[in-house]
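pinning this so it doesn't scroll away 📌
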Amino acid sequence: MTDFMMDFADDRVLPFTVEALDIRGRAVRLGPMIDEILGRHAYPDAVSELLGQATTLAVLLGSALKFEGRFQIQARADGPVDMLVVDFEAPDRVRGYARFDATRLVDGMTPAEVLGRGQLGLTIDQGNDISRYQGIVALDGQGLEEAAQQYFRQSEQIPTRVRLAVGRVVQTDGAGDLRPVWRAGGVMAQFMPTSPERQRSADLHPGDAPEGATILQFGDDDAWTEARLLIETVEDHELIDPTLTSEALLYRLFHESGVVVFDAEAITAQCRCSRDRIVSMIKGFPPNERREMVADDGMIGVTCEFCSTRYEVLPDDVDLQDEDGR
């Protein structure tokens, strides 16, 4: 555990608990890391904001994994952004990209409008021949915050409140010049009661109950109501303010009930792509398709969708001939 010292470090996630309210959660603030990811892609602002939200959500959820593995957020939708993918590789690496139709973007679109309707998949992959777990949430224009809450409410039956924010702020760079940089932040609180009284929280309607049957209804626990309302007071500017630490934000919210924070975990932007992986991928295509990949300059060019790194591969490195030598 740590105390509330003034540490303005970015690119980290901070676990916390509020025992009096049976709350566990995580807070994240992203600075240079999210600026690197979004800056490399150079997407339109509305697409960058959506990818920033998805990256922040992936960090909040993926950093809770207690094993070496991968957590992935993938959305397929009918909005200008028809595909959105963020990979979080435990314990600390993240990457992401979006596919979009620029002709459909309209000034002033919100991230929820940019995404539209479709499906959001949350996948946990432990590797080592262990079956993957995937949860699916319908996207009905509600955005990533509500979709995440809906997932926990329906699939995990854990009351959850998520706040996400992405934006640009003007900061001094390494050369001492002022420039706008991307920042992102988020906070997630979950109601994890241990007493039987508090476990009797509001539940989903059973749906298939016989007509006339009495359905017991329990309202939200007062502790969860208090915590949820406090999280809902968080403003976007608080989540991306470079001078407001996660510790200070949590103290603002929960000082009356007593909040305990644990050691922060660093997060980095790191892609899994490499020249060797690219060459291996190209070799997986039939020789005739490899030959078609050769550009006018005599090279095979491949750009990684996740980090926008450009690779130039010599045809001789991928063997363009068929088995009979043609």
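📌 and the second one:
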Amino acid sequence: MKKTLRAFFLISICLITEFSHLSAQCPSSVGILGSPVMINGSCYINIQLAIPNSTVSVYNSFGLVMQGTANSSGNVAISYPCSANPITSITSVITNPALQTCNDFTITPLQILPAKLRSFTVSVNEQRKAVINWATVFEAPNEKIELEKSTDGISFISISAIDCKESSIAERKYTYEDMSFFADPAAYYRIKLTEADGKISYSKTVYVSNSHSTSVTLYPNPLRSGNKFSLLGLKPAEINSKNISISDLTGRNIPFSISAANSIELPPAVTAGIYIVRINDKILKLIKE
């Protein structure tokens, strides 16, 4: 009996020693920091202070939820099903060149964020450059942030791109100056976000008018495909149903919707013909082919 108790005591001491050894392998004395967030119905956990280049595993009370690979700084953002909340534990393991394990962790309460993009504004400076500012509240590796521009509100091109290299839940601010804006009567800007899994989302579209241009035009005109056109030369505040009316040549009012910044969409039933667009005291002709 004494031998059995002595053996059990020695095994317990070994296990405690081994556990302390594994905990001591964490890069930081505070262990791994895990910050779960939910954004637009998607869940991520931002990992910091893991073993660099290690396999990071996150668990709930039922077992393994998801894994990811930490970068050289020990950071990684891991996406996981929101149904797996709450996350209860984290481990960081690397086997090359030698086995190293960290299982000390701190998990913060789940944060629910309204969007990855906190703000997005466009203004025109004294040099007639469009200055675009935006801020993110969450970024993950392999995501791509693009600033897109359009002169008609329909066809957009990318004018700036940022490849996210590491995870972050801190606010990051960006600024871009569009030096070609002075040559345009107006421009539309938006942010395109491509996530690591290929999912694409867009910010609101912001319209900016060049004050040197006083004319109001419809684009495209003629309207050859689709039922959407843009009003160029107006401020966004002027685009509303009180200031605008559309009718056919018989005087019959045509319903419409404002589908985006400075964009007007006619109903699907509208047929080919000539339509009159009234904007305050201005009268414009729209041709639909």
